[in-house]
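Friendly challenge for the regulars: who can give me the structure tokens for this chain first? No prize, just bragging rights.
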Amino acid sequence: MRRILFILVAAAFIFTGGFALFATHVSRLTTPANPAKADAIIVLTGGQSRLDAALDLLKAGKGERLLISGVHPSATRRQLQLATRSDKSLFNRVDIDRAALDTIGNAEESAKWVESHDYARVILVTNNYHMPRSMLEMGRLLRKASLDPYPVVNSKLGEGRWLTKPEAFRVLFTEYNKYLLALARGIVPVKPTSDGMVVVQAAAE
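First reply, four minutes later:
Bragging rights claimed.
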């Protein structure tokens, strides 16, 4: 019983310490003032600020094309153009992915897009709290292309401010758990299904 109790206490200590490191790292991420030019830009849906940031990068010539990944199937190109107040010439350089339903799907669809265009360097746009998991999932599939993170910061959480903001704490804690699951998938490959999670069987060569 003592051994079990020790293991539980140690696991809780590691989990808590890991969360503190994760939250501190995320809260220190900043949006690059002048990122280096890449071949293309990918933005993961989840907020207007992400889309605005990605389109600003496209307009500034930081990439040849932009992929918006995870768009709702019912959203039309025209609706997206109006919502982002983009002119037609700029939006002609935008591709839309409606197949992705989560971050894993974002990575899968983005990898197909990057490979089809033979891009070597890509700027990834998403919120700061979502960046570690997005980079992890993308990095597993984009083996030939390099990723430049472009974190979007909606609120400053540095210097421990996330501890005093319940909503920020909740978002970071939830994302930390998702990040741990993403790490675990690298050891025991699993895939989400409508009935939960299933272990992915390796295909025989």
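The radius of gyration is 19 Å. The helical segments are 2-28, 48-59, 77-83, 88-91, 103-117, 131-141, 166-187. Your move, everyone else.
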